[in-house]
Amino acid sequence: MLKYSERSIRLNKYNLSIYRWGLMKLVDAYFYLERLRDLIYSLLELRDKARDSGSEIVPIQEATSLVKYGFISMFKGGVIMDVTNEKQAEIAERAGAVGVMVLDKLPYDVRASGGVARTADLKIIESVMNTITIPVSAKCRIGHEEEARVLEEIGVDLIDESEVLTPVDEKAHINKWLFKTPFVNGARNLPEALRRIYEGASMIRTKGEPGTGNVAEAVKHMKLVNRDIAMLRGYYISGDYEAIWVYSKENKVPYELALLTAKLGRLPVVNFAAGGIATPADAALMMWLGADGVFVGSGIFKSSDPESRARAIVLATAFYDDPETVVEAQKMVSERQAMLGIDVRTLKPEQLMQIRGE
Q1: 2: buried, middle or exposed (CB in 10 Å: 19+, 13-18, 0-12)?
Q2: Is 139 a catalytic residue?
Q3: What is the pLDDT of residues 285-336, one digit of tens each?
Q4: Catalytic residue among 139, 176, 220, 302, which?
């Protein structure tokens, strides 16, 4: 009887956490929507007054850097899930994902099938977009500007220039400043991240090793980024700007970006963790290490319990700093139903996806 009571208490705490999280999200959404509505009406009134008085109307600017960064910042604290069809997208939305990433194959299957991995079928992407209400992203190959163009044309919300797909150019990434749609790029360390931001990326994700179900590489990459940021921050606080300049020169990154990172004490853009996240505890760990959110690829839909695992990972990501909630999230899944992981040490160098597009 005691065990039953303890279990009931734990379940009630979990249900309360879900309710509290959902209520906060709902209240925040209505609050910001009301503010946005008031702002839009105020701007429209000012425009009409200016037009009536004969003043020159400044043309509306679209897809500015501020708009892109602002849109991406709305993903913070959430989970973006890889999906391959409408059914998986619906599961992700019901679980509380902030967005989905549409692929032809999950990273685990891309690794297993070999060959050339390309962007997903546009008809599937459009079908997913018509099925769910949360933002829809899609991947293009590194350096493949035309794949990115067609993704922008059909109206995806975010483009991932991804090492999971087969690169067409290992050295030259897409010039992302030419696009209205924001981009996310992977990075294994701070210099790589700053180079991608210089190219126009509005968001960064640690690469990890996709399709392995092994979070070790994601942890390593996040710690490498954090250590360099801490070092640059130390230089900035001590006034050693020459050391920041030397760092930028040695690592082939713009000095201005290195200086901005040192001043902020973090990446200048939103940084999600990715690559090998398969459990709620994995997601909570990456958030604890400083990630703004997580991408989950094969970890959910290559498991035997995708619906409960998706909900659990969303919960653990949102409440990573509440151990009791993370425990409840971890209890929602079973290790026996998790995807079969791959030890990265068993992979040959040519099998590693993370080294693509440095």
Answers
A1: exposed
A2: yes
A3: 999 999 999 999 877 888 889 999 999 999 999 999 999 999 999 999 988 8
A4: 139
